[in-house]
Automatic annotation (TrEMBL):
It comes from the Eukaryota. This is Neprosin PEP catalytic domain-containing protein. Residues 142-396 form the Neprosin PEP catalytic domain. Gene3D superfamilies: Outer-capsid protein sigma 3, large lobe (3.90.1320.10). The keyword Signal applies. InterPro entries: Glutamic_endopeptidase, Neprosin, Neprosin_propep. Pfam families: Neprosin, Neprosin_AP. Residues 1-18 form the signal peptide. Keywords: Signal.
């Protein structure tokens, strides 16, 4: 089933709707300004070290025990889990196989925070003001919202899932409006649509979409979570929830290298796994355990009953939809359209399982705009792989 999920309910943004005029920030009242200052003090924790990145982000190194997550009352007595109690199997590909198909897969900007600290991108007042624009997008995983389109391979609903992974091709599609989004991700969710608990991670293009939020026009790595039963959840670190343990990669980092049509291909490896000992949901990027979503955040996420590998776009009704992936429909050529390779999931066996045809369904809501090609297992380099994407345009409602 298609779940409805509120990913971006940013309760931190309490300003009025009149905050952007012709692309510029409008004036706000003194009371609103004081409220924003208070929010910034809560979000931006005192750093032990500050780093200026090559993309202009200011990243603060925060005491791991004082990070934003622990402002959540649900985590009041939470004990940090520094590493998962399980080991994730590495995807081993020799260079001969890799170079025959793909270029090297790397591209997340890294920082160097001291031991015992974690990196967090410093938020500005403008970030909070403009973040309210995000609240208009209410359905990363749903087809029910006008202007929202997807192309996906989805696990059969009703199963019991404990993990999902994939290596996702990264592009930087051209997006023309701040009210548009395009991206690719993996997800797991549990529960009926109206009270679904969900976790998502992937990349999202910000070119002319949310430069005020991200501070640049690059493709960005992102995480998101939601519990619709309690109306909780958010993108990245816009609210207390995700507990980071890695000191080198910051959430919302730009993807340095992106692919080009019929040219070099760059990808990022992502996974979401449930720790069988703690029931925390770990996020893994490029063979690095970034951190986890604590079990206490969710009203019902001891396992997942849905999951999948997704390409997604959103736009305002009546406007053309942005490109997805490379902007080209799949044509059996991995250098022409966006891909997700080495697709796998975990069930009760807790071993990685390839998504055979009988275990999944193909989803596309407008094949002339965006399509999916899935042939199951390809070869050792690609594993189970899908091609997806398309030009967008006027796709209907």
């Amino acid at each position: 089933m298609i779940i409805n999920i509120l990913l971006i309910s940013l309760s931190l943004c309490l300003v009025t709707n009149n905050y952007i005029v012709d692309g510029r920030m409008a004036s706000i009242s003194q009371g609103e300004n004081l409220e924003l200052e208070k929010q910034l003090k809560l979000i931006n924790k005192p750093p032990t070290k500050t780093i200026q990145t090559s993309f202009g982000h200011i990243v603060d190194c925060i005491d791991i025990n004082k990070q934003l997550a622990f402002d959540n009352p649900l985590l009041k007595n939470h004990k940090i889990q520094l590493q998962p109690s399980f080991q994730v199997a590495r995807t081993t590909i020799n260079e001969g196989q890799r170079s025959a198909r793909l270029s090297s897969s790397i591209g997340i900007e890294k920082v160097s925070c001291p031991r015992g600290t974690v990196p967090a991108r410093r938020r500005k007042k403008d970030d909070l003001i403009h973040a309210k624009q995000l609240s208009k997008i209410t359905g990363m995983l749903t087809k029910d919202i006008p202007g929202s389109y997807g192309a996906a391979v989805k696990l059969n609903p009703g199963g019991t899932y404990y993990g999902i992974k994939g290596i996702i091709d990264t592009y930087n599609p051209i997006v023309a409006s701040k009210e548009q989004m395009t991206g690719a991700f993996i997800y797991l969710s549990n529960g009926p649509p109206d009270v679904a608990n969900s976790i998502i991670t992937g990349w999202q293009d910000t070119d002319e979409v949310y430069p005020e939020i991200h501070g640049d026009i690059k493709t960005h790595f992102f995480i998101a979570w939601a519990d619709k039963n309690t109306s909780a959840g958010c993108y990245n670190l816009q609210c207390p929830g995700f507990v980071q343990t890695d000191k080198s990669i910051y959430i919302d980092s730009p993807v340095i290298n992106t692919s080009t049509y019929d040219g070099p291909q760059f990808d990022i490896s992502l996974s979401i796994y449930l720790d069988p000992t703690t029931n925390n949901w770990w996020v893994r990027l490029q063979e690095t355990d970034l951190g986890y979503f604590p079990a206490a955040l969710f009203s019902d996420m001891s396992s997942a009953n849905e999951g999948g590998w997704y390409g997604k776009t959103m736009t305002v009704v009546g406007n053309p939809s942005p490109p997805m992936g490379s902007g080209h429909l799949p044509d059996n050529n991995i250098r022409h359209s966006c891909y997700i390779r080495q697709m796998a999931f975990q069930d009760q066996s807790r071993g990685d399982i390839g998504p055979e045809f009988q275990l999944v369904s193909i989803y596309r809501d407008n094949p002339s705009c965006y399509d999916v090609q899935y042939d199951g297992y390809e070869d050792k380099s690609l594993g189970y792989a899908m091609l997806f994407g398309g030009p967008g345009g006027y796709c209907g409602n």
